[in-house]
From TrEMBL, chains A, B:
Family per similarity comment: Belongs to the DapA family.
The species this protein was found in: Rahnella perminowiae
Protein name: Dihydrodipicolinate synthase family protein
CDD domains: DHDPS-like (cd00408)
Pfam family, one: DHDPS
Keywords on record: Lyase
UniProt cross-references to PANTHER family, sorted A to Z: N-ACETYLNEURAMINATE LYASE
Amino acid sequence: MFTGLSAFPLTPVTNAGFDEPGFVRILERITSAGADSIGVLGSTGSYAYLRRPQRSRIAAIAKSHAGNIPVIVCVGSVSTDEVLRLADDAQTVGADALLLPPVSYQTLREDEVFGLFETLMQHVSVPVCIYDNPGTTRFEFSDELHGRIARLPGIRSVKIPGVPSSPVDARVRVQRLKSRLPEGVTIGISGDASAATGLNAGCEVWYSVCGGLFPLTAKEITDAAARGEHERVVQLSERLQPLWGLFRKHGGSIRVMAAAAGVLGLTETDCLPRPLRPLSASDIAEIATVVSELNLK
Amino acid sequence: MFTGLSAFPLTPVTNAGFDEPGFVRILERITSAGADSIGVLGSTGSYAYLRRPQRSRIAAIAKSHAGNIPVIVCVGSVSTDEVLRLADDAQTVGADALLLPPVSYQTLREDEVFGLFETLMQHVSVPVCIYDNPGTTRFEFSDELHGRIARLPGIRSVKIPGVPSSPVDARVRVQRLKSRLPEGVTIGISGDASAATGLNAGCEVWYSVCGGLFPLTAKEITDAAARGEHERVVQLSERLQPLWGLFRKHGGSIRVMAAAAGVLGLTETDCLPRPLRPLSASDIAEIATVVSELNLK
């Protein structure tokens, strides 16, 4: 479950609330494409904006539409008690694995983050992936801490943010982390623009926002990586530069993917939970052009 | 209500959950000292770690013990919908004012933060203070945005983080912001080590973590500021350098104030909601020494 393409769909939230039919349409693209896993309620899945009953419902819908594809559910919250309740809910609806980001309000210390994971691992029976995303959680992991947490029974993967852009530096970075991890704990790349470099550097899985909406496009890349076709991986990612450029332009992927989902007719273009707001009409038009010209699918 | 000393108590959360008797003991220090307002469920009040029913209960307890002192309730949440529900709850229990930090998960844009405040102001009938705390919310206000929001009817104060350490620069900074604000909207300083400089630079209120536990000590400073005794304000704050040093040493005030509340016997020294953890025994001993030697009260 912690290899290949892990597709992270967005959770459309329109003026009328959670758009369940839209979410199901997004899920169906992922299952049709044959992703290796589905990561629901990640950052782009807007978990931070949704209440516990909504998160439980969304995980249940994912499970009921995923067929044989494992579903990984993010259980992030600033409160440890709430993380445990969310983990209970996710397990109740059949989550195959959990993803835990150490979301901070007060800046967390290393022993506090270790304690958070230790508490979760004592509480749950499904495997867990460490979600390292300093841009949203505001916590910077050291490799040493990753290694310490990864030795807790049940930890199976580490989702890292981007890698250095140089292939050599990226390989050094991935190998340095890998040397800290027990056998069987995979490293997954996120930060879609880094995916090719990360996969070529030894990451075994792409935790992919792109794959949440354009799973066929993303799967070409992970399939090429699985065959060891490093140059092809780079070429396929290079072709997507206009998409990575949109992510940079709009300070991240979420507003771009929300607009793209609307452009594809899967939900509305205004499908972000408030206070987040949709991009301007001209920005959405630019996104529509990129989706069409790159034939993203 | 938006002048003088606004005391921000911590919310003790022990292994057994919210420590209501401990919280009441902390409130009683504030009311006995005659603070000008009480700001409950601020950052040090751990609002981010508490659930909606807990937050409503804590606001209600504050109201029932505050006597004639106005109670300001923080209604921060990453979700606008949740902010509105929290505001309803706070108004229901009699909150005299609300405090809103633009808590971010995805980095917010200026128009999104304006939209958040606009939505709140259309929803509530009590006055609101803008809570500018980039260290925890991850949103940096511009003065222009402060001014735009402050013109919404019902906005009555802006709580700013520290000011420049030079008195001249601090005065320029406060005057620049003040020139953007409508008549009657006060500026309040937070970041306790900056309080003296901020008050002398023209801030009309100290939103004070120190005042949440040591209200007599803090009130000496705001009283001196109200009398225009600038040198005395500086002297009183200089005397507290060991306390400001502890805040710096421990990456903020919350863990220090939690330890101090335990040292004073008001609650347990382990009174932080997980994943936050108490400081070490030796750190707590150092805090006890500072509380005693400075005669903080």
